[in-house]
Amino acid sequence: MSRPISITIDLDAIRQNFDYAHAIGNKSAGNNSQTMAVIKADAYGHGAVATARALANKTTLLAVSSIEEAVLLRQNHIRSPILLLEGCFCKSELSVVDDLGLQIVIHNQEQINDLLAAELSKPISVWLKLDSGMHRLGVPLIDSLNIYQRLSNSQNVSSIVLMTHFATSDIPDHPLVSQQLDSFKTAANAISQSNAPIPNSLANSAALMAIPESHGTWNRPGIMLYGISPFDQQNTLALPLIPAMQFCSKVIAIRKVNTGDPVGYGASWIAKKTSIIATVAAGYGDGYPRTAKSGTPVLINGRIAPLAGRVSMDMLCVDVTHLGDVNVGAEVELWGKQLLVNEVAQWSDTLGYELVTRMPTRAKRIFINQ
Ligand SMILES: Cc1ncc(COP(=O)(O)O)c(C=O)c1O
């Protein structure tokens, strides 16, 4: 038997989450909005190629972060249109964009200059990103009309979508949300006055679920496709999401420890009474966070038990005293449908986003419900 750790990806859960995301945006836009699937960072650790295949009949646009991610999809015969969310990192990438028929975000002056000067075989679909207040990417609002006109007059540009990104959409009543909405709308209106109505794109998962005013021509959900809530607190809007990743292993040792006995590196956990400790074949080398504190819930045979002591590279220990009947070989869910990754993330001072995205390739991935 090989090391009993596995990451199972339920592709039908991703399809159902996509349907949920699409239904929200489409309803508020009178059946007129489109939904791309954000599958950057290997589909947030879920497998970009498998996710793209699973969504092939549902979405007409896939969003990634780099040429390399787009090339991988094309090499695996994914024919859907692909958007580079950060655009090109240097002008030589424009010829790959041209060859592969990619769409690009334009967010800075260097990218504008490179695109306007490029010799391309055909014009490109451009997504002009405006900095409406997050101050991470995007052209300044004050320049947006001028830039829009220069791009739309270029023979290298076939169409333009105006886009922006929220800094605080996971806190929908944060004042920055309405400030960004207002700023974006003011800039978009100024551009539309001298042009036909312009398609737009604002909403990520949190905005799609909680900020209806942000719904646009194109919505851009990422994390919700994988069944993970973008919100810190429980939010009823996230209840229909189905977790797509199940991270499992097995108990590989059981021991009794006496009052005062330490468990694990650093002897940070000390038995307060005679206890039963189960050792599980999963550690930070498999993607389980080393920062998880003692007490982090672990599911053993479907029942919750607390992590005991520090997580090692290949193993972690769980206090199963109250479960009674745990043996070597017992099934362990580290996160999945029954134990949400966000709960483990909270105990580890991070987000579900980080935990799933940084999963190493060490544990085998099993794709189900293809
Ligand atoms: C520009 C852009 N749009 C959409 C998304 C998807 O965001 P989320 O995963 O929060 O839905 C991201 C992800 O970071 C992004 O950078």
Number of domains: 2
Q: Assign the structural class, choosing from mainly alpha, mainly beta, alpha/beta, alpha+beta, or little secondary structure.
A: alpha/beta
Which residues form runs of ≥5 with pLDDT under 50?
Answer: none
Instruction: Summarize the biggest pleated sheet.
Output: 8 strands, mixed
| Strand segment count | 20
Shape: elongated
CATH topology of the largest domain: TIM Barrel
Strand content: 15-25%
In CATH terms, the superfamily of the largest domain is Alanine racemase
Name its key features.
single chain; 370 residues; alpha/beta; Lyase, Ornithine Decarboxylase, Chain A, domain 1; eight-stranded parallel sheet; 11 helices; elongated; binds pyridoxal-5'-phosphate
Overall description:
The protein has 370 residues and is α/β, with parallel strands linked by helices. The protein has two domains: 11-228, Alanine racemase (TIM Barrel), CATH 3.20.20.10; 245-368, Lyase, Ornithine Decarboxylase, Chain A, domain 1, CATH 2.40.37. It is 28% helix and 23% strand. The strands form four sheets. Strands 1, 12, 15, 16, 17, 18, 19 and 20 form an eight-stranded mixed β-sheet that branches. Helix 6 links the parallel strand 6 (103-106) and strand 7 (124-131). Helix 4 packs parallel to helix 5. Pyridoxal-5'-phosphate (PLP) is lined by residues 38, 85, 165, 204-206, 220-223, 230.
